[in-house]
Design brief:
alpha/beta, Rossmann fold, six-stranded parallel β-sheet, three-stranded mixed β-sheet, 13 helices
């Protein structure tokens, strides 16, 4: 299938590479990273002279860019709106707001281009191995049309609703739960460490008990190793928390708000992996 792909970052590049491995024709353009585009070209991808040129023959347009602004700049400009072929499908994977993806869906619907809201979860390893999850929202017929291609890059496809935006909402809430758990792992370990608990004993015991979690199993080994090489950064997680808190309306979510405070305090570690939130230290009760 002819695919235009935009967003060759930590997640996007391995996804695009997997599409190539499965025999799809993947075209990109030098959008943000020249090096990433050239690396994809070395794998057999095509680098078009512009985003507009990249989509001209596309059956599918995949996008996974940093935020709402980047998404709108890429897809809501007149040149791109005119260039995306009628009858194609946009597979929108960005961790963006529901409002942003709805605006894109509405803009393209008027010219016969469908959109599947499909944010992803599973980290860089999941993207590279093709085992990540995709949270898909859009017309059932659109999902079924795109499903065979998505099965080439994801281990789990979750169809979550017929309206674009539902995938973004669930993705932001998933990341909220992940962030709450990671902050809690950091607090629990600091307490254990203060009492002289052996780190291996702590991990072995908790991972075999009711305090076990995905966050514990992925975060604690990195704490022990001091490994905060970025996959999904602190800055990106904070953005997703802000998206989740933007859903509050008249609700009060004190646990979510406290977790966002953690990630705001983690700003000095913004370009490290989001597990670096465990390095945050708030003043103790005596002000020390």
């Amino acid at each position: 299938m002819n695919i235009a792909f935009f967003g060759l970052g930590n997640m996007g590049y391995p996804i695009a590479a997997n599409l190539l491995k499965h025999g799809h024709a993947v075209t990109t353009a030098i959008h943000r990273s020249r090096d990433a585009a050239l690396r994809l070209e070395a794998l057999g991808g095509i680098v078009a002279p512009s985003p507009k040129a990249a989509v001209e023959n596309a059956e599918l347009v995949f996008t996974i860019v940093p935020n709402d602004q980047a998404l709108e700049e890429l897809l809501l400009n007149e040149a791109m709106l005119a260039a995306v072929p009628t009858g194609s499908v946009i597979v929108e994977m960005t961790s963006a707001s529901a409002d942003a993806v709805k605006a894109v869906a509405e803009a393209y619907a008027s010219k016969g281009v469908a959109l599947l809201d499909a944010p992803v979860s599973g980290g860089v390893k999941g993207a590279a191995s093709g085992t990540m999850s995709m949270l898909c929202a859009g017309g059932p017929e659109v999902f079924q049309r795109v499903k065979p291609v998505l099965e080439d890059i994801a281990g789990k496809l979750c169809y979550v609703g017929a309206e674009p935006g539902q995938g973004k909402i669930i993705k932001s809430l998933n990341n909220l739960l992940n962030a709450v758990n990671k902050a809690a792992v950091g607090e629990a370990w600091r307490m254990a460490e203060a009492h002289g608990v052996d780190p291996n004993a702590f991990f072995d015991a908790v991972s075999a008990s009711s305090g076990d979690s995905f966050a514990l199993r992925t975060t604690f080994p990195r704490i022990q190793a001091g490994d905060y090489v970025p996959g999904f950064t602190v800055a990106l997680m904070r953005k997703d928390l802000e998206l989740a808190l933007g859903l509050e309306r008249d609700m009060t979510l004190p646990l979510a708000e406290a977790t966002l405070d953690y990630f705001r305090a983690a700003a000095p570690f913004d370009q490290e992996d989001n597990t670096a939130v465990v390095k945050v230290r708030f003043p103790d009760r005596t002000g020390g």
